[in-house]
Design a protein that fits this description.
The protein has 82 residues and is an alpha+beta fold. It is built from 1 helix and 4 strands. The longest helix is centred in the N-terminal third of the chain and has 14 residues, at 4-17. The chain is flat and about 45 Å long. The chain binds zinc ion. Zinc ion (ZN) is lined by residues 2, 4, 69, 71-72, 74.
Length: 82
């Protein structure tokens, strides 16, 4: 598995340290979903899908897990096939 998330979080951290916020900067993280495969918990990036139903004001939020890293394209292996 690639290190894109870790590398990007480090770069974002550096950028945030140079940015003026209204309050002191504490930390930054790239949002990921926890995925349970068998007995193994892993994290994956995802895209948000918003489902609209006719006659219903409240939209339904859904997540589509990425099978490949969105930054470098490397396949994200499931724990049992890694
Ligand atoms: Zn990657």
């Amino acid at each position: 598995m690639c290190d894109c998330i870790k590398i990007l979080e480090e770069k974002l951290h550096e950028r945030c340290l140079e940015t003026s916020f209204k309050k002191p900067f504490e930390s930054v993280e790239i949002e990921q979903a926890f995925v349970m495969t068998g007995n193994v918990m892993t994290t994956k990036t995802y895209s948000r899908a918003i489902i609209t139903l006719t006659g219903q004001k409240k939209k339904i939020d859904s997540n589509i897990m990425h099978s490949h890293c969105p930054f470098c394209g490397e396949k994200i292996a499931d724990p049992e096939t890694a």
